[in-house]
Amino acid sequence: MWDINFNIVQFVISILAWGTIGYIAYRIYTKQESKPRIWKIVFVMMVGLFSFSINLPFFDTIIKISILPLGVWILYAVLKGKAGRWEKYRRFAWLGFWANFIFLASTFISIPISYFAYPEDHPATYISDVSNASVVPIHPSAKDESLHKEVIINQLANFERERIINDVWYEETYMNAEPSKQNERFPYLLINVKPKWGSGIKSMIYIENDGKGLLISTADKQYYFRSNSSVLMGGSKDE
Description:
Blueprint: H1 8-31, H2 38-49, E1 52-58, E2 61-68, H3 70-79, H4 85-117, E3 134-137, E4 146-147, H5 149-154, E5 160-161, H6 167-174, E6 188-191, E7 204-207, E8 213-217, E9 222-226, E10 232-233
Antiparallel strand pairs: 1-2, 3-6, 4-10, 5-9, 6-7, 7-8, 8-9
């Protein structure tokens, strides 16, 4: 199966949004007696997109809400002095501005669909194909371990999300006076693992020293999961 390095849900909905804008532009074009050049229509619509906007957070995503049609005002100022020009391009200019709200609607649609298709708090989103995956020691305390591929795939549904910080770990990591005695909790890195197809998610996956915990780091978040079985060959036995 082909690798997809972008979110397929967002891509498809973006294509639908652009298709909707193109269809509306086509309808406007066919109804006009005086037909503008296609490249001029595209240019006017792109200028019409320009607006004064405010940014608001929505489900960990910053969305842009257009307030003032700056592009439309600019086009009006340029074209109003030329006979018939503003009337010819006015609807395309406003379509450019209203396209901002079509894109906004597509964002509102794609975010919940992406959330349910690729839940960020489930390890199966980040770990789908481990056929070429392997474990790399990243700390001197790490032992010579290999990945138990069947276990990690079979245990994905059994991993439970937990808080990464607890009293025991904090004491072992920070309360020891000598750095040489500090305990490295995640001494292994899982590499060459593929995320769920079409998610477009990039992450770093660290394995806990007993092989039963996964720390998944994305660009802006970290998730910690635990199971009762070690994903390392030669790691701790099942509880």
